[in-house]
Amino acid sequence: AQKVTQAQTEISVVEKEDVTLDCVYETRDTTYYLFWYKQPPSGELVFLIRRNSFDEQNEISGRYSWNFQKSTSSFNFTITASQVVDSAVYFCALSSLPQKVTFGIGTKLQVIP
Amino acid sequence: DGGITQSPKYLFRKEGQNVTLSCEQNLNHDAMYWYRQDPGQGLRLIYYSQIVNDFQKGDIAEGYSVSREKKESFPLTVTSAQKNPTAFYLCASSIRTGGGADTQYFGPGTRLTVL
Q1: Confidence class of residue B81 from pLDDT cuts 50, 70 and 90?
Q2: In chain A, what residues touch B103 (CB-CB under 8 Å)?
C-alpha cells in the first residue's frame, strides 16, 4: 500500500521568510512518481512539479525548490522569500500507476504580511 | 484557452435527490478522473476513465455513477444512495503516455451541499 504523510497540517510565516513543507512517502514500488500541487482559496489544484524515482536531482523554479531524498523517502518543498500569494493548501502526492494517485492530507500555509 | 471546466460551482441538493456534476475538458486528454475532498483530508478517487465508453471504480465509488460517451466529457451523478454527499468535488484529466504516472490537471471544483 502507498502512503503519503504531511505531518504539518498548518504553518504560518511572516512575509519574506523561507518555509519548508515536509512530505514523507511509503511505497514498495521501485518506479514511482511524486507530485506537488497548490490549492489556493479558489479551490482548483494547480500542478507544481512531477519527479520520478530515478531522478534525485533537486529542482529549483524561481522561489520554489524541491529536495528529493530516496534514502529518507522524503520530497520536501521550500518556498524562499514567501509572499502573501503563496498562502494556500499544498498537497504532496505519490503514484506508481497512471490511474492511482495517493494524496497527503495537505499543509495549509498562511503567509502573514 | 485549453482547460477543464466544472459546473456548477455551487450546488445544493435536497436529501433523496440525484444530482449531476459536469466536467468538460478541451485539452484532448484521454483519461479523466473524479475526486472527492473533505475538510482536513486528502483527495479520494471516486471514478476514472482511460478511454471513451470505459470507466473504473476508484476507492469510494459507492453512491456515485459516471458516463464517458465523449472524450471531452465525464459527468458525475451523485445518487440518493450516497449517504454523506456534502463535499468538494474535483475533476481532473491527463494524457496517457503509456509509461508511468501521468500528470493530472484539475478543474475548479464543485461544492455540493445537501440540505
Answers
A1: confident
A2: 35, 47, 50
Distance from CA of B80 to the nearest CA of A (A): 25
Average pLDDT for A5-27: 97
Please give, rounded to a whole number of angstroms, the shortest distance from the CA of A113 to a CA of chain B.
25
Taking Cα atoms as reference points, which of A109, A95, A93, A110 lies closest to residue A21?
A109
- Please state the rounded mean pLDDT for residues A66-77: 95
Question: Is A95 part of the contact surface with chain B (CB cutoff 8 Å)?
Answer: yes
What's the pLDDT band for B110 if we cut at 50, 70, 90? Answer: very high
In this structure, the dihedral spanned by the alpha carbons of residues B95, B97, B98 and B103, taken in order and rounded to 10 degrees, is: -70
Torsion of CA B53, B57, B60, B66, to 10 degrees: 10
